[in-house]
Design goal:
alpha/beta; 7-stranded mixed beta sheet; SAM-dependent methyltransferase; Methyltransf_12; transferase
Length: about 260
């Protein structure tokens, strides 16, 4: 097994996308973005920018910028861009997306990262994020937004098992989320949601390399804190947001 400098397995090394997104759905999203013929693409909270790179590969001449605050993910994105011959058209920048002036552009990707557009001192506000996305995209441009929504109202026990401070106000039902997008100046061209298989592949893949490492290195100096972290993550999913929290993939077109 490949390990990092601290002896731990690489972060998220078994994931293609940093979210519950299958190859089949990614291909459908890609086709809709490519059909709009974007000249420039902005990926907010890009991670390693897998979908961004696929867009650039499919649209000759298009240029893309990925912004994130995780240096390790950005380095992975630059390496992938170089491997695919896209280093001259893809830029990965370590910076906050809050108030960014990297628009307007023809297309925006924001997959599970809308919190990067909101005030970190306040509760997450999808309405604010949608207004920011509208500011950053040209009229007629396309935004692909991956955003959480409640499939049903979580119970008190489920909330307690989720992330610290989880509350019913953290997300909206899907219908209300789409209404917010319309109110921000978009038309919802396509609405789809992640399925159980996508969630299970993501959640298991998120911890897979680390679980294998823990099984092989139970007495490593970092094993106890690593085991506590992944056990807490898994419990949050299985006892908290599994079949409660959904992810919507909204293909939004900016109105004139």
């Amino acid at each position: 097994m490949i390990t990092s400098d601290d002896g731990l397995p690489p972060r998220l090394g078994s994931l293609t996308f940093h979210g519950p997104l299958s190859e089949e759905r990614a291909e459908r999203l890609l086709r809709r973005i490519v059909a709009s013929g974007p000249a420039d693409v902005l990926d907010i909270g890009c991670g390693w920018g897998e979908l961004l790179l696929r867009v650039l590969d499919a649209v000759p001449g298009a240029k893309g910028t990925g912004i994130d605050i995780n240096a390790e993910d950005l380095a992975r994105g630059r390496a992938l861009a170089a491997e695919r011959g896209l280093a001259d058209r893809a830029v990965f920048v370590e910076e906050s997306a809050r108030g960014t002036e990297r628009g307007p552009v023809d297309a925006i990707l924001c997959l599970g990262a809308s919190q990067a557009l909101c005030d970190p001192e306040l509760p997450h506000d999808p309405a604010e994020a949608l207004r920011e996305l509208r500011r950053l995209v040209r009229p007629g441009g396309v935004v692909v937004l991956g955003e959480g929504f409640w499939e049903r109202t979580p119970t008190a026990a489920e909330l307690a098992a989720m992330w610290p401070g989880a509350s019913t106000g953290d997300h909206f039902p899907l219908g209300e989320l789409v209404d917010l997008a319309i109110g921000a100046g978009f038309r919802p061209a396509w609405i789809e949601t992640a399925g159980r298989d996508e969630w299970e592949a993501f959640e298991s893949g998120y911890r897979y390399d680390t679980e294998l490492w823990l099984a092989a290195h139970p007495d490593h100096p970092l094993a106890e804190e690593t085991r506590e972290r992944v056990d807490r993550q898994r419990s949050g999913w299985l006892k908290g947001y599994r079949n409660v929290l959904g992810i919507a993939y909204l293909t939004l077109v900016a109105t004139a």
